[in-house]
Amino acid sequence: xxxxxxxxxxxxxxxxxxxxxxxxxxxxxxxxxxxxxxxxxxxxxxxxxxxxxxxxxxxxxxxxxxxxxxxxxxxxxxxxxxxxxxxxxxxxxxxxxxxxxxxxxxxxxxxxxxxxxxxxxxxxxxxxxxxxxxxxxxxxxxxxxxxxxxxxxxxxxxxxxxxxxxxxxxxxxxxxxxxxxxxxxxxxxxxxxxxxxxxxxxxxxxxxxxxxxxxxxxxxxxxxxxxxxxxxxxxxxxxxxxxxxxxxxxxxxxxxxxxxxxxxxxxxxxxxxxxxxxxxxxxxxxxxxxxxxxxxxxxxxxxxxxxxxxxxxxxxxxxxxxxxxxxxxxxxxxxxxxxxxxxxxxxxxxxxxxxxxxxxxxxxxxxxxxxxxxxxxxxxxxxxxxxxxxxxxxxxxxxxxxxxxxxxxxxxxxxxxxxxxxxxxxxxxxxxxxxxxxxxxxxxxxx
DNA sequence: TCTGGGGTCCTAGGACCC
DNA sequence: TCTGGGGTCCTAGGACCC
Length: 447
Known about the structure:
The chain is α+β, with helices and mostly antiparallel strands. The chain is built from 14 helices and 17 strands.
């Protein structure tokens, strides 16, 4: 356990709604609800003016409308949220390289890894440092506010940031963690949701202090091995989880809930295929491919079914994913109607076998991945569509977003792809086996 | 017409291999 | 011949988080 309050948690206040109020002055001071616009939508974020009426995240749009019908209901502008988020994360990274984003509006920062840290033994200095960060967040986002928590662990920092919302700062002094936690409800512990809360309640356990009085064995009997062990530690304020700057992507998925239940199988197959295309495009844009294709089907009565199939080799191909997904759907009874369909790919590898460009050039295998890393000479921007790409290759460019060619040989091209969503992907080399595409040397182009 | 979308992690059972 | 591991992979479902 750390003895210094060197972990910071920052949480932007009512983030989506605040961005809307920032960009549209007429919404300022008024209830704004992002999400919940469709017939089956839920609230993503409610401004504080809307929360007064009891509107909360994850509430159905129907209920939000009943509670606060005069609010502005917006469907959301994710580009604007991402842009603001990027600016905030950049501010945090300037304070320490160890920044772990949890979502667009939340991140942990490890001040102990900062190059210019405050005096971590001086609580006033830490507070001053954090206040400066909050100030800079406000400056770079055009006035958005953030709440910050500081403590000796992720758990404590996160709880601290909740204590003075909105636009607040809370430091939990080292050594005072347990007295802070003991009276709190068990559900403040991350991982304790509705189901666990109910189990604990039935065992007579309501507060953190109650949990502390229970043996590890009892907790494991109650909620399972992994969960029980983590509860046993966290209720004693013991948490040494590190702040992880980069986390590996494990899966990519797309799902959709439809306004009215689907009954037509052909339509479902078409929608699943469309989603497969979106998943495949995102895989390609990020340099991923995966072996396991999973479909998710939510029936009219909200029961949710998943079916998966693991392929022999990883794919990022629309046709392979669509074929697998529709095949999985074929075995399900959907006669009662379907409200949600989804497709996902997991078991990701950062290399691709055989049909890298199969989807895009008519499913003929023209290229083969040969290595997953390569020395990186001077970056060259990819030629634009219709530019110096050989026939067929410009399509790849438009599918995959921005990218840079990092080098090329007679029949090998080394490329780094990047999208606005994810930033740079891994550097990869491909052999070009189609004689029509070789020899080929990309021309440097200017921005 | 209660109940989004994109993720992560865990559990449990069965197959399969050594 | 019988019994019994352990380890890994795969599948389905559930809980949880923002």
